[in-house]
Amino acid sequence: MPYGFDIDDALHHQLRTPVPPDVLAWVERETRHRVVAQRPLQGGQSTAIHRLVLDGQDDVVLQRFVLDWISEEPWAPANETLVLGLLADTAVPAPHIIAADLDGQDTGAPTILMTALPGTPMWDPPELDPWLDATVAVMMTIHSTPAPQQLRPWEPYAPENAPPPWTRHRWAWDVALAAYHDERPSHDRVFSHRDFHPGNILWRRNVISGVVDWVSSCAGPVEEDVAHFRVNLAIHHGQIVADRFLQRWMHASGQVEYHPYWDLLTAVSMAGDVPDYHLDEFVAAASGRL
């Protein structure tokens, strides 16, 4: 099952229950339009996201940071607001900010109101190569966007549950952890989405119509987004498709090499308690190439 769709009942209650009336009243004040319908958007598991239908106005998306993790990363709502502002006049198909209550004074939790983009995520495309090529193209558009100094600097996520107790390749995770703590390869500084995977790319009529979830965006290496997408492909589709994506990106970008370090750096933060043998094989393949 794709990321974010298999949440437990407690998290579902926190993220998918109807928007409170006082928050809807805030939306109506900010937009000067009445909210006539709402529905939770599936696929996320870090913020509550609802699509709101307004009377006589285009739909909007309401994002609320209602989980405890925000106390450890209080910069996140302001970061997304900054990033979407920077992308407003670019070729990147990102939402536009309508309003924000960054400290939750009016809404009870940090809240962002943004335009709703058409389309839905596509994890299982009818044709693989056109899907990969379009994804590569939009990723390269993001990376070609100027990355001003006010963007947060990139830092890798810390290892989590690594090596996992269910691994069949303990040696590979040991290599991955050693690589994490080793000196990093040289890299460029580009505009990075930082959570680039199929669940954050919207499609309409087999064309990409939007890229969403810019909470963690930063200035960092091109390889960050490449590796993150590769790991998600490997988990959902297997190693062959992840390698196919890498080949298509290298051909389109003119890159002549790709260091397996980037795959390992991303993978060590993604091991959960439930066995994931696609991820296990991905780590083994990358460690074998190091």
Model description:
By secondary structure, this protein is of the alpha+beta class. It is 38% helix and 17% strand. The chain contains nine helices and ten strands. The chain has a five-stranded antiparallel beta sheet with strand order 1-2-3-5-4. Strands 6-8-9 form a three-stranded antiparallel beta sheet, with helices on one face.
Contiguous helical run count: 9
What is the tally of beta strands?
10
Mean residue pLDDT = 95
Q: How much helix, percentage-wise, in residues? A: 25-40%
**Topology order in helix (H) and strand (E) letters:** HHEEEHEEEHHEEEEHHHH
**Quaternary structure annotation:** single chain
Note the gap between the termini: 30 Å
Structural class of the secondary structure composition? alpha+beta
User: Beta fraction of the residues?
Assistant: 15-25%
Uncertain residue segments: none
Broad shape: globular
Radius of gyration computed on alpha carbons: 19 Å
Q: Strand order across the biggest sheet?
A: 1-2-3-5-4
Largest sheet: 5 strands, antiparallel
Spell out the blueprint of helices and strands:
Elements: H1 9-16, H2 21-31, E1 35-40, E2 48-54, E3 57-64, H3 76-87, E4 97-101, E5 111-115, E6 120-121, H4 128-144, H5 170-181, E7 190-192, E8 201-204, E9 207-211, E10 218-220, H6 222-237, H7 239-253, H8 261-267, H9 277-289
Antiparallel strand pairs: 1-2, 2-3, 3-5, 4-5, 6-8, 7-10, 8-9
Helix pairs in contact: 4-7, 5-8, 5-9, 6-7, 6-8, 6-9, 8-9
